[in-house]
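Design job #97: recover the sequence.
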């Protein structure tokens, strides 16, 4: 697997949840912070997002995407609401409850009658997809930690075409009574997550002022190739010499570039990734400890247990017992 696929697979638990929402008129709703990764996709109209951390509000237009990797609390409103309006913002769950509206994939959720005004005018209809993914942050990859609390990905012609294609597909499937929608929508949500992370990586790499390590690491041909080798076969008996030879550079060059961009030396990163992979296998499978050990490059359960305890401060058995079951979010994102 490639790095981004592994990062998402290791962290995401259960099925994503989404809701399609339609609202018009004057409105203001608060979405509290939550333990997960969220997204907002504007399908029609325009609205404003006001971060809870005091950041500047910004407008969302049709086709825009917002990624919330840490479930940051925020307000959605028809305008850049003033202080008193923000104080009166209706909690999102209560808002839906007050209107006695279902929260399902069976059809669009209408919070207020559609407005006859053209899109973008005051009071015009706004339609959006809101969703979230549950994350296991116990061994989250540092790539996820580098993503800002709020990532705004505006729709621009020719920019991130795969992301826009996924949005268009979701706009047709989510809330529609179509055959196979129960399979199509969760799959498209997973695809959307991949494309949102890809878009952030691409934009960060193009931004000369971005201080994040991982966009640069994945944009460096030598480091990216070394990471791909380690992720494709973490169980292999890697050494610095072997990895350098496979990437076509000297051991010193690989160590310098890898450590500078990733923040860990190659073998230190490999050990950390093996432990993260072991944790995922313990959480998501019933494989024996011996099987898990061999899948991540350890010759025995004892060797794995020693390394796992040193990394996470608990034994593999205790970690497995304490791991939450996979679940699907219930309620509104």
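Job complete. Output follows.
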């Amino acid at each position: 697997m490639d790095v981004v696929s592994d990062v998402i697979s290791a962290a995401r638990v259960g099925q994503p949840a989404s809701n399609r929402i339609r609202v018009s008129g004057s409105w203001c709703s608060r979405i509290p912070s939550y333990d997960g990764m969220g997204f907002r996709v504007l399908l029609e109209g325009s609205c404003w997002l006001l971060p809870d951390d005091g950041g500047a509000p910004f407008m969302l237009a049709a086709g825009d995407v917002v990624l919330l990797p840490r479930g940051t609390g925020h307000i959605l409103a028809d305008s850049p609401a003033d202080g008193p309006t923000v104080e009166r913002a209706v909690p999102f769950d209560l808002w839906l409850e007050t209107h006695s509206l279902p929260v399902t994939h069976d059809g669009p959720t209408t919070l207020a009658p559609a407005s006859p005004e053209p899109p973008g005018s005051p009071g015009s209809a706004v339609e959006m997809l809101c969703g979230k993914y549950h994350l296991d942050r116990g061994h989250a990859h540092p790539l996820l930690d580098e993503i800002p609390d709020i990532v705004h990905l505006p729709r621009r012609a020719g920019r991130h075409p795969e992301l826009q294609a996924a949005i268009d597909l979701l706009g047709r499937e989510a809330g529609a009574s179509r055959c196979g929608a129960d399979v199509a929508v969760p799959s498209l949500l997973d695809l959307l997550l991949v494309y949102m992370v890809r878009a952030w990586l691409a934009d960060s790499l193009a931004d000369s002022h971005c201080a994040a390590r991982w966009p640069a690491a994945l944009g460096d041909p030598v480091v990216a190739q070394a990471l791909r080798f380690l992720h494709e076969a973490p169980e292999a008996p890697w050494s610095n010499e072997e990895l350098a030879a496979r990437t076509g550079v000297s051991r010193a060059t690989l160590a310098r570039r890898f450590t500078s961009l990733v923040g860990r030396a190659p073998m230190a990163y490999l050990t950390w990734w093996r432990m993260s992979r072991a944790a995922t296998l313990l959480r998501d499978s019933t494989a024996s400890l011996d099987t898990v050990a061999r899948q991540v490059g350890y010759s025995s359960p004892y060797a794995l247990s020693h390394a796992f305890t040193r990394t996470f401060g608990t034994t593999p058995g205790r970690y497995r017992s304490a791991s939450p079951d996979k679940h699907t979010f219930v309620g509104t994102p």
